[in-house]
Amino acid sequence: MDIILKYFPDLTELQISQFNKLEELYKEWNAQINVISRKDIDELYLRHVLHSLGIAKVQPFLPDSNILDIGTGGGFPGIPLAILFPKANFYLADSIGKKIKVVNEVATALGLKNVKADHIRAEKVKGEFDFIVSRAVTNMDDFVKWTRKKIAKKKNHELKNGILYLKGGDLTEELVSFPNATLYDLTNYFEEEFFETKKVVHIPLKKR
Ligand SMILES: C[S@@+](CC[C@H](N)C(=O)[O-])C[C@H]1O[C@@H](n2cnc3c(N)ncnc32)[C@H](O)[C@@H]1O
Fold first, then answer.
1. CATH code, domain with 64
2. Where in the sequence is the domain holding 35, given as residue range(s)?
3. Ligand 1: does its nearest atom lie under 6 Å from the Cβ of 81?
4. Which end of the chain, N or C, is surrounded by fewer C-beta atoms within 10 Å?
5. Has the ipTM of the complex gone over 0.85?
6. Secondary structure of the chain in HEC code, one letter for each residue
7. Quick one: which atom of ligand 1 is closest to the CA of 69?
């Protein structure tokens, strides 16, 4: 948990207590429904919570903004972002019902009023969002196909509305058909070795 305060020193007491509770909640739920790999659970705050919050360093979310997390699994990156931005609305979607059960249990235990979680396939999600966030779900070609009609027209943030995807490794080939993609190295914000090849990929999308 110290690692979260290291990079986000202005958290409120409520946010600190919510982040603190994540460890126990995920340990408890992960024992029943596997949402985080066993080896990763000991590094929950680094590999899952702080990694998710990398998106916040690239683009903080404004009050009343609408954010969709596709393939959220146990709630990443959606849950840590919802704690950090309690005035933004988060819609967390996954095609596996038992993962959404964990997300709902965690959100309820934390008292997060800004999280709605649904057992739904990405392709079926309705609504318009300022940003669509994600991690470890699919390749960018498919992801853009799933999401391009779900972007709100009105731009309120510094970055253009679109995708903010947490990716790692060499993305040259995967992003060849997205010349408008911008890559933000997480090493610009976080010094831990884990982030060495990790990036936030921003792709502006227009509804059409
Ligand atoms: C590797 S997990 C990643 C989970 C989470 N984003 C994380 O980083 O911890 C991929 C998740 O994407 C979900 N998923 C895959 N295809 C999907 C689709 N078409 N619609 C919704 N969820 C999908 C899977 O059910 C799974 O929970």
1. 3.40.50.150
2. 2-204
3. no
4. C
5. yes
6. CHHHHHHCCCCCHHHHHHHHHHHHHHHHHHHHCCCCCHHHHCCHHHHHHHHHHHHHHHCCCCCCCEEEEECCCCCCCHHHHHHHCCCCEEEEEECCHHHHHHHHHHHHHHCCCCEEEEECCHHHCCCCECEEEEECCCCHHHHHHHHHHHECCCCCCCCCCEEEEEEECCCCCCCCCCCCCEEEEHHHCCCCHHHCCEEEEEEECCCC
7. 6
